[in-house]
């Protein structure tokens, strides 16, 4: 009923211009008149997308998530290559793998991690192997795991490039500084009701008032500029509370993160987390001693109970949410599903096979299709 016909240009409202909102607007702009709404000023600074390290690490993540997350993450890594190739400006992306390390006292955490990985495409490395991969890091590391297929991208540049394309597109009307709410099958913008053919709810944790099972998972992250440090790939350090990663970005910038706390506390980063993150980083490479601290921030990852994403369809309203710590890893999946649904094409059955709860269609009696 709502599918796009060839002659009529549908009106699509997208609530939230974070990661999913921008990607959806980008993928629909040639098929529809898109109205994009965000409460921020177009800089994404209130989004989880802005804070993220944007590692694309299906295997490393598989230690704590389902095999479906891993397999669909692998699918999305390939999709990212296509999405980025299509952009008018090149965005930093690399697939140089990631390196997992542990000091002697945390060797059992590394072994646990290895035991929980859901595939075998990794290599155990000793001190020489570590030095071959990352010649500059602390020579005290005796054991590590190298995951050669993992990737990463520059999220902040990606958000900027998408913004530029959308702001220059005649079919996108982007309104900033607005509070957008779902009101039945309409949208309320700053309290005024508007109707659309389709409404895509991409507000991340901002959808919580409408979704009781959505929660925020706190993460703290530090950005550094360290001209004395050269790392070729994200390095993860086993830590008793959570693995800490150091993800290199262009121009000697590094994202060090992230804590993972079952809390919706929105205060700034704590002393304890800051000490843990910075000392982990210094223990990996002493060159971080002279690094400039560019920012020290905290944010909330939007997550459902099983920490897996969902596309929920109810009439003309589609919610895309629950990307948790896999927003960059898995967003192309939700984008592909949502575009297929709107264009009246078949959603790839492989997605639902791998992640049985990813698609929910409410036909009045909450029928769950997958
Ligand atoms: C510290 C940290 C590190 C992370 N690292 C990684 C990583 O390495 N790899 C990875 O894959 N993922 C990572 N993530 C996860 C990823 O960032 C999120 O899963 C992803 O950003 C979620 O995308 P989203 O579009 O659903 O929400 P968001 O990116 O949060 O966007 C939601 C948007 O909706 C807007 N909004 C909310 N309410 C309203 C309203 N009422 N009206 C108008 N606009 C509204 C917000 O302003 C925001 O712009 C990380 C997250 C955090 C916090």
Describe the overall structure.
By secondary structure, this protein is α/β, with parallel strands linked by helices. It folds into 2 domains: 1-94 and 153-211 and 304-370, FAD/NAD(P)-binding domain; 98-148 and 215-302, D-Amino Acid Oxidase, subunit A, domain 2 (D-Amino Acid Oxidase, Chain A, domain 2). Helices cover 29% and strands 27% of the residues. The chain has 10 helices and 21 strands. Strands 6-7-5-15-16-17-14-18 form an 8-stranded mixed beta sheet, sandwiched between helices. The protein has a 7-stranded mixed beta sheet with strand order 9-2-1-13-20-19-21. It has a 3-stranded antiparallel beta sheet with strand order 3-8-4. A hairpin with a 2-residue loop joins strand 10 and strand 11 (186-189). Helix 1 packs across helix 7 (155-168). The longest helix is centred in the first third of the chain and has 20 residues, at 67-86. The two termini are 21 Å apart. Mean pLDDT is 95; it is low at 365-370. Bound molecules: flavin-adenine dinucleotide. Flavin-adenine dinucleotide (FAD) binds next to helix 1, helix 2, strand 14, strand 18 and helix 9.
Lay out the secondary structure.
Layout: E1 11-15, H1 19-28, E2 33-37, H2 48-51, E3 55-56, H3 58-62, H4 67-86, E4 93-94, E5 98-102, H5 107-116, E6 123-126, H6 127-133, E7 143-147, E8 151-153, H7 155-168, E9 172-175, E10 180-183, E11 186-189, E12 192-194, E13 198-201, E14 215-225, E15 235-237, E16 244-249, E17 253-257, H8 271-284, E18 292-303, E19 310-314, E20 317-321, H9 327-342, H10 349-354, E21 359-362
The structure holds flavin-adenine dinucleotide.
The site of flavin-adenine dinucleotide has 42 residues, from helix 1, helix 2, strand 14, strand 18 and helix 9.
């Amino acid at each position: 009923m709502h599918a796009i016909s060839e002659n009529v240009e549908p009106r699509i409202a997208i609530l939230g211009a974070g990661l999913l909102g921008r990607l959806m607007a980008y993928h629909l702009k040639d098929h529809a008149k898109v109205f994009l709404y965000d409460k921020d000023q177009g800089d994404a600074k209130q989004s989880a997308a802005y804070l993220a390290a944007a590692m694309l690490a299906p295997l490393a993540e598989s230690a704590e998530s389902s095999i479906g997350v891993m397999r669909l993450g692998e699918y999305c890594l390939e999709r990212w290559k296509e999405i980025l190739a299509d952009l008018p400006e090149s965005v930093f992306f690399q697939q140089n793998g990631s390196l997992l390390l542990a000091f002697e006292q945390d060797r059992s955490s590394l072994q646990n991690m290895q035991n929980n990985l859901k595939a075998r495409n990794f290599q155990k490395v000793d001190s020489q192997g570590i030095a071959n991969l990352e010649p500059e890091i602390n020579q005290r590391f005796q054991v590590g795991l190298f995951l050669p297929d993992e990737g990463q991208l520059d999220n902040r540049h990606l958000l900027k490039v998408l913004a530029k394309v959308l702001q220059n597109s005649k079919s996108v009307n982007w309104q900033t500084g607005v509070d957008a709410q779902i009101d039945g099958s309409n949208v309320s913008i700053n309290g005024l009701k508007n109707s659309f053919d389709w409404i895509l709810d991409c507000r991340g944790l901002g959808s919580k008032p409408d979704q009781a099972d959505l929660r925020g998972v706190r993460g703290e992250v530090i950005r550094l500029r360290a001209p004395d440090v050269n790392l070729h790939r994200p390095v993860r350090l086993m830590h008793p509370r959570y693995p800490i990663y150091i993800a290199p970005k262009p121009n000697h910038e590094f994202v060090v993160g992230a804590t993972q706390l079952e809390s919706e506390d929105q205060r700034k980063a704590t002393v304890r987390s800051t000490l843990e993150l910075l000392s982990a980083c210094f223990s990996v490479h002493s060159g971080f001693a002279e690094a400039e601290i560019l920012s020290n921030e905290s944010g909330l990852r939007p997550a459902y109970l099983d920490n897996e994403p969902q596309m929920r369809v109810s009439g003309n309203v589609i919610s895309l949410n629950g990307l948790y710590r896999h927003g960059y890893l898995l967003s192309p999946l939700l984008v592909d599903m949502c575009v297929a649904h709107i264009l009246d094409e078949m959603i790839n059955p492989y997605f639902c096979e791998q992640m049985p709860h990813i698609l929910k269609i409410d036909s009045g009696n909450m029928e769950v299709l997958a």
